[in-house]
Amino acid sequence: MSDLSDQKNITPAAASYDRPEGASLEQWMNTRIARYSTRKYDWDALKFQADFDPKYRRAQMRYVGTGGTGVASDANTVPSEHFTFSTMVIPAGHEGPPHLHTDVEEVFFLIRGKLKVVLVTPEGERFETVMTDRDLISVPPGVYREEINIGDEDALMCVMLGAKKPITPTYPADHPLAKIKR
Fold first, then answer.
1. Quick one: how many helices (H) and strands (E) in the chain?
2. Which of 4, 50, 123, 167 has its CA 20 to 30 A from that of 30?
3. Vertex 85: Cα angle to 80 and 89 (nearest 5)
4. What global pTM score does this model have?
5. Pairing of the two strands 59-64 and 155-161
6. In whole angstroms, how large is the CA radius of gyration of the chain?
7. CA angle 78, 84, 85 (to 5 degrees)
């Protein structure tokens, strides 16, 4: 059993946004910039879905954290304590399968393209909408979401999740992806 004097020597972990000791403002800020020129599309982040059915092929380009795809780490991103931010490209005719985040809201901001977004509650209540350039939707936790590219070109969207490392999403129990091991 430790006494209170031992607890005084415990240093709390620094937040990822804290300035490193001895770093100049320039050095610190350069660790917090993610340039497009240093990003690349990660077609493997959700490859297990595309391997099951090619219509699920899409790519993530990470900027802040690793997102909700299940990628364990990416040293080429800006660290964050409270959210993730990436872009996602969904080729024409492809889709993001229905999935559920239990712990975070997820925001989709469509930069270009045309997506049909289908939302379904666990009780079966359904809502559909079509998003076009510069439309945004915020999906609460506990609601299934599916994004289908109904346009003739790649859809490009920003995706933001409200946690540093969201719980890996799940699929509806009757969806074939629910039975696949990652």
1. 3, 9
2. 167
3. 155
4. 0.85
5. unpaired
6. 19
7. 80
- Alpha carbons 71 and 175: distance in angstroms, whole number: 22
CA distance 89 to 38: 17
DSSP string, 149-168: E-SSS-EEEEEEESSSSPPP
Report the sign of the C-alpha dihedral through residues 136, 141, 145, 149, in that order.
Answer: positive
- Tokens representing 180 are 């696949």
pLDDT for 45-65, tens place per residue?
999 999 999 999 999 999 999
Q: Which residue has the tokens 């889709």?
A: 95
pLDDT in tens, 76-95: 999 889 999 999 999 999 99
> Could you report the per-residue pLDDT of 4-37, keeping only the tens digit for each?
445 556 667 788 888 999 999 999 999 899 999 9
Dihedral sign of CA atoms 69, 71, 76, 77 in order: positive
Would you call 108 exposed, middle or buried from its count of C-beta atoms within 10 A (0-12, 13-18, 19+)?
Answer: buried
